[in-house]
Amino acid sequence: MSVIAKIASLSRRDRISSVGYALSGVWLFLVALFWMLAPGGEGGGGGIARLMAVVGVALPLALIWLAVSLARSIAVLRAEAEDLRATLARMGRDIPEAPPPAPKPLHGGIAPAPDAPRPQSRPRLPEPPRPDAPRPDAQPSMALDAPPSQSVDAATLIRALNFPDGPDDHEAIDALRQALRDTTNSRVLRSAQDVVTLLAGRDIYMDDLPPDAAQADAWRRFAAGERGSAVASLGAVHDDQALEAVSAMLHDDDVFRDTAHHFLRNFDGLLARLVPELDDLQIAVMADSRSGRAFMLLGRVAGAFG
């Protein structure tokens, strides 16, 4: 957790501690009042009675401070989520939506050289992208689907998919800034951010959901369009509480359901473009990113893997 997130949670934790001290004081006052007002008696009950009295006094205090400890931990986690959300929002405001204008610029596309204008091409996997290959019948909107390799390399995009750990994670912030300059990448990353933020609001954190080891062959099959038993292993998140909570959210929360389906569609398209360019290690790192974990969690609940 970042230092800023810890500082942001201090005031909440102090308030929680104050409540704990107040409850402890009230309980001890009531115990003292009971002992003063209770009828006197010599040796009533012996050692067992004294043991029960000690337990009766100490157990509520232990429960009070257990609750205080849990509440402080929750405050820290919430502060971290708010800090990440604020960091991403600031970067989104600072990043231009499109590159500088050029003759007949396309939305989010790469402007051609002034002395040699040519239309954008949309490469077809698995061939690598060829910006200089003309395609007269291409529609202008196709420029929005320019693959990541035209703007950032695969390693940078994978680093961006994991999001920064905090304001001091400069490497991840720089990767995210570069990836967001591409319109297609921006759609994927922003939809992933929305999903991760909504899940964090329900105390479901991607860092707490380590998946099974990624199977590169299954990811390649899924990216190629296969569904069913061949890719069922991609639903590799097995936390029962998280699965039940997400299932309830998809059923009861219209906003979350629309956001989740939007993310699944965008991430599916990203896999079709990106996975054929990756080796097994890069696929494993991508799958273990926060965006990858969210995709496996939501995909399993939504039945995306068959």
Question: What summary fits the major beta sheet?
Answer: none
- Whole-number count of domains: 2
Give the structural class.
mainly alpha
Round the mean pLDDT to the nearest integer and report it: 75
Helix content: 55-70%
Number of helices: 10
What general form does the structure show? elongated
| Number of strand segments | 0
Poorly predicted sequence stretches spanning 5 or more consecutive residues: 98-150
Q: Which series of helices and strands comes N to C?
A: HHHHHHHHHH
Beta-strand residue percentage: under 5%
Q: Roughly how many Å is the radius of gyration?
A: 27 Å
Give the end-to-end Cα distance, rounded to a whole number of Å. Answer: 36 Å
Write the layout of secondary structure elements.
Elements: H1 3-37, H2 46-94, H3 154-161, H4 170-180, H5 183-201, H6 216-223, H7 240-252, H8 254-274, H9 280-287, H10 290-302
Helix pairs in contact: 1-2, 2-5, 3-4, 5-8, 5-10, 6-8, 7-8, 7-10
Task: Explain how this protein is built.
This protein has helices spanning 3-37, 46-94, 154-161, 170-180, 183-201, 216-223, 240-252, 254-274, 280-287, 290-302. With 306 residues, the chain is mostly helical. The chain folds into 2 domains: 3-32 and 56-93; 144-302, no CATH class. α7 (240-252) packs across α8 (254-274). The protein is elongated and about 80 Å long. The two termini are 36 Å apart. The model is unreliable at 98-150 (pLDDT under 50).
